[in-house]
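We both want to read discrete structure tokens more fluently, so let's practise on a single case. Would you supply a protein for us yourself, any chain you care to pick? Would you write everything just below, so we can both look at the same thing?
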Amino acid sequence: MIIAVDFDGTIVTHEYPRIGREIPFAIDTLKRLQQSHEHQLVLWTVREGKELDEAVEYCRNRGLEFYAVNTNYPEESKKSNEPRKLKADLFIDDRNLGGLPDWGVIYRMIMSKKYYEPASTEIKQEYKLAQKKGFFEKLFSK
């Protein structure tokens, strides 16, 4: 599986253009996924130039090498006026609907192949409460 991973807010805290503090277990989880040999990791970030090089080096210094960076495969060249479109099976990003789950949850979801379940008990409870109150019926009946 090809997994695209954001950097700021996902691997490290948001402090762009500086590199923030590592989010607990982010690097370890990604290395573990990579070691399973079932997954290719692609760094998918808005960073470019010097800031991108710093992010790649940050990960490399911690033992995490990506299959590709801001491209689908290492040999791909990016044309400056061409929009980037990544062909990934899964995206890990703090801007997901519902935010970024804990890295332990992310690991379990990927390894169990349960990508579309709510990430936390709290979300499940809120969803059930919304169903019970008829929120979705009201929302879509208009």
Summary: The domain at 2-111 is CATH 3.40.50.1000 (Rossmann fold). The mean pLDDT is 84. The beta strands are 2-5, 40-43, 68-69, 90-92. The chain has five helices and four strands.
